[in-house]
Amino acid sequence: MFNKILIANRGEIACRVIKSARKMGIQTVAIYSDADRQALHVQMADEAVHIGPPPANQSYIVIDKVMDAIRKTGAQAVHPGYGFLSENAKFAEALAAESVAFVGPPVGAIEKMGDKITSKKIAQEAGVSTVPGHMGLIADADEAVKISKEIGYPVMLKASAGGGGKGMRIAWNDEEAREGFQSSKNEAANSFGDDRIFIEKFITQPRHIEIQVLCDSHGNGIYLGERECSIQRRQQKVVEEAPSPFLDEATRKAMGEQAVALAQAVDYASAGTVEFIVDGDKNFYFLEMNTRLQVEHPVTELITGVDLVEQMIRVANGEKLTIAQADVKLNGWSIENRLYAEDPYRGFLPSIGRLTRYRPPFEVVEESHVVRNDTGVYEGGEISMYYDPMIAKLCTWAPTRGEAIEHMRNALDGFEVEGIGHNLPFLSAVMDHPIFIAGEMTTAFIEEQYPDGFEGVELPAEALQRIAAASAAMHRVAEIRRTRVSGRMDNHERRVGVEWVVSLQGEDYAMTIDADHDGSTIVFADGTEKRVTSSWTPGDQLADLDVDGEKLVLKVGKIPGGFRIRSRGADMKVHVRTPRQAELAKLMPEKVAPDTSKLLLCPMPGLIVNVAVQVGDEVQEGQALCTVEAMKMENILKAEKKGTVSKVNASAGDSLAVDDVIMEFE
């Protein structure tokens, strides 16, 4: 076995690999850029080597710099994680040239599966079900229209070297096929330096389901079940689960056997994933093969008990698989939520900055359930603008899907993140969405259910009543503490009443509190009673309560006259008042938001790439005003209406915070 492995990656996946290597008694080497000098993976590894400036194209993906780090440390093998150099055949060749093991598949498999046209042809030859389409070179837009008609609309035009949704268009008629061909071709050339386009049938109401395969270099191959990855945003997965709530055993077996056949057709040896698109009738079609470890691999580990990173290392060491297909048993259900540094209330724009508070839920490994959090950050650390926005992958496991979802809901409620925008509220909303609960989601789930973006959650009446009761009980605890303040003036003793009105999400709940040593009984005006018990004390930012025998986890912040409460995707101000205070509060005028209609505000922390207008310019609706870059994404800000630029406050190269004024208009 190897004595030392270098991890050619960063963030949570580097930390994940270190954990398995350490369990196996293998020393680890981290590499890091200037931006990652204090990163968690650097702290966890046995050694760390600096490889350059923050941009990945000057550090993490510069093969020569990684090779220098290998030579310097004497690492015998390299695990590439995912992204960066993980599917780079030239990197694998460079390692082989210096007799360093690549913890991944052979170069030939990477090359063959890395090209969509080549991979589809190999899949067809291996007997894998593929989407009807035209895989040859397409000369021009006229030929694209002719082919599209033969396949039958709708069709998908795709870049052969594509990924991440680039160079991809859907066409429903001749005109869209003509326009889409040219757009895809241009985008592919700009993004990948390869303008080859192919066309295939577009599957309506599709589900994205993938099969995990594991092969060794001795001809053995198995599949470890499937993962449901249909909940995506801009072709990026957000929620995954294993197994899929949609597949039956016969379909699972057919998909698994075809996935292994494809892997063995290219002499695959390592962990890999074969992705399929599945229609409503359980017809499945090959999409692509990822020749690396997937982001969502933990859900497979949780239902099979197989450590995929360990298996990759053993295969790279030349060992035979010790697991046969008959040994693979799918046990229970697992769900993964990807926690991103993206602000759901601002169109999921990237959010960067310091994590002023980062308190994930306690990790649990019990027979009844598991809570696992794969992360590469820590409280006080910084989310950089240079890399992808993933903060953590929160996973739960339980014997049934319903139990796994419930444990995930509670884990999300107990996950504290402050200092940046993040998608925790959105993830909570998905876990409670009836389509997700029913297991009936498609890849269009987010687009269809949140067409205008995410604006928070309106909780149902029963949930509001539970939170109102909990808030009243917490307020009483805080009031009791205030009565015990020393040094009071004589005859100014503070008394805590029993009648209160709790206001939240536009609802008022009048109630009385009957408190005792163990908790509080809340009696609402309609006679409903709620029993609340908790160990919460004023100042705690997380309240773990019991309301009528059911767990309730709230994130709690103090505001004048009440709390800021966050629960199940809702973020609300909760006021707890005496009846007289509540009566007077209704007479108070509403605070009007400031008028920002004549200002261009920066929607995210980022770097100004360029400013396209100057003072005095008349701009039209939809005209590009400037470009802001954050987390590898360029965002073009456009005029919402006609106007004249009166002031420009920023220029190219400036770093701005959220809501900084970029320019003003007359």
UniProtKB/TrEMBL annotation:
Pfam families: Biotin_carb_C (PF02785), Biotin_carb_N (PF00289), Biotin_lipoyl (PF00364), CPSase_L_D2 (PF02786), PCC_BT (PF18140). The lineage of its organism: Bacteria, Pseudomonadati, Pseudomonadota, Alphaproteobacteria, Rhodobacterales. It catalyses: propanoyl-CoA + hydrogencarbonate + ATP = (S)-methylmalonyl-CoA + ADP + phosphate + H(+). Pathway: Metabolic intermediate metabolism; propanoyl-CoA degradation; succinyl-CoA from propanoyl-CoA: step 1/3. Residues 1-451 form the Biotin carboxylation domain. It comes from Parasedimentitalea maritima. It is an enzyme of class 6 (ligase). GO terms for molecular function: ATP binding; metal ion binding; propionyl-CoA carboxylase activity. Residues 590-666 form the Lipoyl-binding domain. This is propionyl-CoA carboxylase. Its EC number is 6.4.1.3. Its cofactor is biotin. InterPro entries: ATP-grasp, BC-like_N, Biotin_BS, Biotin_carboxylase_complex, Biotin_carboxylation_dom, Biotin_COase_C, Biotin_lipoyl, CPAse_ATP-bd. Residues 120-317 form the ATP-grasp domain. It comes from the Bacteria. Keywords: ATP-binding, Biotin, Ligase, Lipid degradation, Lipid metabolism, Magnesium, Manganese, Metal-binding, Nucleotide-binding. GO terms for biological process: lipid catabolic process.
